[in-house]
Design brief:
mainly alpha; 84% helix; 0% strand; extended
């Protein structure tokens, strides 16, 4: 067994793990789209724990860098992250409502700016920009009119869609990588000398 074949198998195994991870993400995304309420609470808890762990890590870094000019800034930022993480973990429903309201306002302002900008500028992509602005404005109004009930499914839907598309991307990357490695390994196996074939040198060929 030659070395390129061993390396090819290792690469195929690595791409296989990526494909498996992508499949798990796709399954999680589909389940989240079915149970959007559970996905919303899960995303809020993950967000809270990320803030909490990030704040603790930042606090440790700030303590290690005590005596510098950025010590107190690091402590303040870490304390804010820790406090925000604790609040999000203790009140995931209220956090979801606040973030949903914020997302609705972002959709509204973004849609209005796109609509006004496309009419004023009148560029080559005016139609596409108008469509994006109208879609953002409509989505913001729908989320806002159904608030706070919309907080039960909006964030979970976005979180599940992100998992779904990330999983599909990993699956495509893993399958494409395995195909490329198989093609390259096949070419190397075809050009490599057989084990039972004698290896002749230029001097032997002249004789």
């Amino acid at each position: 067994m030659n070395e390129p074949t061993v390396e090819g198998r290792k690469l195929r195994r690595s791409f296989g793990w990526l494909t498996l991870l992508g499949t798990l993400l796709v399954i999680a995304g589909v389940i989240g789209l079915v149970y959007t309420g559970v996905a919303t609470l899960t995303s809020m808890l993950l967000f809270g724990w990320l803030l909490l762990v990030g704040g603790l890590v930042g606090l440790l870094h700030a303590i290690e860098s005590r005596g510098t000019n950025y010590f107190w800034l690091g402590v303040v930022v870490a304390a804010l992250n820790i406090a925000a993480g604790v609040v999000v973990i203790k009140h995931p429903e209220g956090t979801a409502e606040a973030l949903t309201m914020f997302a609705a306002l972002l959709f509204l302002t973004g849609g209005v700016f796109r609509l006004v900008g496309s009419v004023v500028v009148r560029g080559p992509q005016m139609g596409w920009t108008l469509l994006q602005g109208a879609f953002g404005l409509l989505l913001g109004l729908l989320v806002l009119f159904d608030w706070p009930h919309s907080s039960l499914y909006v964030l979970g839907c976005f979180f599940s869609l992100a998992l779904l598309f990330d999983g599909l991307g990993l699956i495509a990357f893993g399958l494409g990588g395995r195909r490329i490695v198989s093609m390259v390994s096949g070419r190397l196996d075809e050009t490599a000398p057989k084990s039972d074939e004698p290896i002749t040198s230029p001097e032997d060929e002249q004789k």
